[in-house]
Amino acid sequence: MEEGKDPEETERPLLPRRPSCSATTALISLGSLLLLVCGLWLLVTIFWLQAPSNSVPHRAPPPRGSPGTGGGDGGRALPEPQACGVVPEAWRFDCYPERGVVVTRELCEARNCCFIPASSSSAPGRNGVPWCFYPPGFPSYSLVSVKATELGQTGTLVKTVKTYYPKDILTLHLELLYETDHRLRVRITDPSESRFEVPIAVPKTTEKASSPAYSVELSNEPFGIIVKRTSTGAVLLNTTVAPLFYCDQFLQLSSSLSSQYIYGLGEHRSSFLHDIHWNTLTMWARDVPPTELTNLYGAHPFYLAMEEGGTGTAHGFFLLNSNAMDVALQPGPAITWRTIGGILDFYVFLGPDPASVIGQYLEVVGYPTMPVYWALGYHLCRWGYGSSNATWDVVKNMRNYGIPQDVQWNDIDYMDRSLDFTFDPAAFSTLPDMVKDLHSHGQRYVMMLDPGISSVQPEGGYWPYDEGLRRGVFINHTDGSTLIGKVWPGLTAFPDFSDDVTHEWWYDNLKRFHDKVPFDGLWIDMNEPSSFVDGSTVGCPDTELENPPYTPGILGGLLRAKTLCASAVQKTSSHYNMHSLYGLLEAKASACALKRMLGKRAFVISRSTFPSQGQYSGHWLGDNRSHWKDMYTSIAGMLTFNLLGVPLVGADVCGFSEQTEEELCVRWTQLGAFYPFTRNHNAIDQKPQDPPAFSPLARSAMKQSLLLRYSLFPLLYTLFHRAHTHGHTVARPLLFPKDVRTYGIDRQFLWGKSLIVTPVLDPGVDFVVGYFPQGLWYDYYTVRTHGQPLHLVSSLSEDGSAGGELFWDDGETIDTLETDQYAHIVFTVVKVRSDHYRPVRSHSVHCGEGTLRPLQTSTSHSVHCGEGTLRPLQTSTSHSVHCGEGTLRPLQTSTSHSVHCGEGTLRPLQTSTSHSVHCGEGTLRPLQTSTLT
């Protein structure tokens, strides 16, 4: 190609046109011309069909050279083809990420970017290899000054060339905060004008880290940040790989990744380990049943990464931003964050192991609350009981069959005409009596509330709306009028939970209803917030907030799709900025109201979530389906939310929508017994799926699974204590840092560090394949407990050592740690008194200066251990107490399965139970639960 030529000119025919000499030559020339035109048309059509495109409306860019485009510098030359050709496909950063557009050469070059169709050998993911990508040297910011501060460094970034998005911010302020030895914070802000920042409390550092585990390098031209781990030299963050964008409604930051092993980035339905092959994850809270490649109920811009090199080290990254965003993963490996508002405020957590990364993240957003003890029990619900008497009958059937149940729920059908803070005076007339009966049996009651408040009741006839109008608690249009959407009760207004006045109004409503129906906890649903109309009943104004220059890949293509107008006014900011925070703020208002009203720990389950959610509520994984795949993907969802600091999480056992089947429900109950939060729930017009609704064999299997869960309550409660005080997970992945084979496992999981669960996830099978990492594992189904009400099972390691802990309090008092109303006992095997039993040595267990022994055989007992006194909670369902790393009652099943032990050794805890165990191919019983010493 000749220098200075338009690339497209070189593709034109170079032969000169000759004058025609006859009619024949004229016809031949005309025919040739027609063939040429047809050929060009065919090529353009093929190119059009093959060019990458997506599915969201797009506003076309202005012509090159007009204000706000890359040509704003007076017509900068297009990138040289040689420069474009050296960029590997895996490192192409998308210059044209808008969906719904066929990216042509003309559109791409209008942005001064490279245009090269992807090779046929490339393996496209959701979006495929970008054909339009940034060339080397694409204009970005320059670091023009930097200085040291008491807490780190500050600097000034300047850009002279405008981008193709409007309202570039050409001068930026950079702040690096060396907050702790394992936490770095970076803030990039507009020094001339304040911008929206997420209103959640984060730690404020007062001194610079003295011995940071990271080093920071700053690139001047183009500006970039490179963060390395000092111990290994591993690059954790390198933002020089692509240009930085900082416009009013488009902020983009790209970085290399340390490996392909990326977790987190909720809420999405996917495998636990994310696919990085051109996979874009969109965050903008949305009411939609869990679906792949779709933005779901919550937004969590945090990831955990395992690093390459076999070191087992991990780090984390958190972008504190609540605006709609795309997170693009590519096989470089690399990541690109595209958000349409706020600031760039991000943290890097150095770990060095996964548990430490999660703990460091939760130090920023807040440790999860300690749940009330009964929250660990079995919860039963459905949409469509139809009456309080029908609900009551299900509870009685559960009691008759001896199936443990701590909590009964009702869906929206308990309400009078779907109005919040009411109950149907006809169909649910006996609801107060049913709740009284539940309480007399040591059980609890939870009902559902939606945020939408009916706006069409007669004046004076519906206190929540009348009083809300009087206090001004509802979200408004920009003209000050109340925004009206549509949900279950019809036309509705939406409370603004960013306003403290709304919190007080919410408390008053809850208190008034509690005086009629003494509920024990809240289920807050539809709080993305969801509306059946886009924006409002009168539409939304045509503004930049409603139609930003870039719209992430949200379902529906519009920010207002099935929610409120983005331009709607809340006290803190516009809904454009606050949308994904709605569920968090409602959960906070609900938890605070319950604590104030009941004087006990609050139980709240929320559908929509955001970072710091775990401080106020748990989460269920939404409106799943009665499919085997949904059961499998629930494990990834459970593990991801534990990583995100919301450990009280689970899926609707047996599935919510569509008809379940007996085998699926049995298997799902076996799995659900090991969710941190276990609830069976299904939709209206579906057949009942509570345990008594099935055959005696299925009912028995479900009962045994739930009894097993109850026997493990002391372990589970202690794990929640560790989550509350140290930021640990309750359910955690089988992610052993130095065993790369565990990095992608999401068909097994752990409770804590020692109890591994391998559920059956496929129909019609009598075996399941599992992986046991290196170590000594014991089969829980062969544990011997000697029939005592309180016992300790210690599974010794190969060197004869073992240890564990137990946290115990009254299960409901707020702040028992602060008031010193608890027992926390640490157990250690200090002496083996007998070594005659094989394969496990029998032993006594000492704790401190005391010896743990059962004091009596009744269900009420206390245990003195060292300086602590252990008193079990009085619950309606009897259970055994576990101190250490595991106890169980075996499930009585005859189904066998094979177990792959990897490098581990699996041993039974006793020899009286007949089964054969091998490392490799063997026979065990599902659910397979084992413990690692």
Automatic annotation (TrEMBL):
<dbReference type="GO" id="GO:0004558">
    <property type="term" value="F:alpha-1,4-glucosidase activity"/>
</dbReference>
<keyword id="KW-1015">Disulfide bond</keyword>
<dbReference type="GO" id="GO:0016020">
    <property type="term" value="C:membrane"/>
</dbReference>
<dbReference type="Pfam" id="PF13802">
    <property type="entry name" value="Gal_mutarotas_2"/>
</dbReference>
<dbReference type="InterPro" id="IPR017853">
    <property type="entry name" value="GH"/>
</dbReference>
<feature type="domain" description="P-type">
    <location>
        <begin position="82"/>
        <end position="136"/>
    </location>
</feature>
<dbReference type="InterPro" id="IPR011013">
    <property type="entry name" value="Gal_mutarotase_sf_dom"/>
</dbReference>
<dbReference type="InterPro" id="IPR013780">
    <property type="entry name" value="Glyco_hydro_b"/>
</dbReference>
<dbReference type="Pfam" id="PF01055">
    <property type="entry name" value="Glyco_hydro_31_2nd"/>
</dbReference>
<keyword id="KW-0812">Transmembrane</keyword>
<keyword id="KW-0326">Glycosidase</keyword>
<keyword id="KW-0472">Membrane</keyword>
<comment type="similarity">
    <text>Belongs to the glycosyl hydrolase 31 family.</text>
</comment>
<dbReference type="Pfam" id="PF21365">
    <property type="entry name" value="Glyco_hydro_31_3rd"/>
</dbReference>
<feature type="transmembrane region" description="Helical">
    <location>
        <begin position="21"/>
        <end position="49"/>
    </location>
</feature>
<dbReference type="InterPro" id="IPR048395">
    <property type="entry name" value="Glyco_hydro_31_C"/>
</dbReference>
<keyword id="KW-0378">Hydrolase</keyword>
<dbReference type="Pfam" id="PF00088">
    <property type="entry name" value="Trefoil"/>
</dbReference>
<dbReference type="InterPro" id="IPR000322">
    <property type="entry name" value="Glyco_hydro_31_TIM"/>
</dbReference>
<keyword id="KW-0325">Glycoprotein</keyword>
<dbReference type="InterPro" id="IPR025887">
    <property type="entry name" value="Glyco_hydro_31_N_dom"/>
</dbReference>
<keyword id="KW-1133">Transmembrane helix</keyword>
<dbReference type="InterPro" id="IPR000519">
    <property type="entry name" value="P_trefoil_dom"/>
</dbReference>
<protein>
    <submittedName>
        <fullName>Alpha glucosidase 2</fullName>
    </submittedName>
</protein>
<dbReference type="InterPro" id="IPR030458">
    <property type="entry name" value="Glyco_hydro_31_AS"/>
</dbReference>
<dbReference type="GO" id="GO:0005975">
    <property type="term" value="P:carbohydrate metabolic process"/>
</dbReference>
<dbReference type="InterPro" id="IPR030459">
    <property type="entry name" value="Glyco_hydro_31_CS"/>
</dbReference>
<dbReference type="InterPro" id="IPR044913">
    <property type="entry name" value="P_trefoil_dom_sf"/>
</dbReference>
<dbReference type="GO" id="GO:0030246">
    <property type="term" value="F:carbohydrate binding"/>
</dbReference>
<feature type="region of interest" description="Disordered">
    <location>
        <begin position="55"/>
        <end position="79"/>
    </location>
</feature>
<feature type="region of interest" description="Disordered">
    <location>
        <begin position="911"/>
        <end position="933"/>
    </location>
</feature>
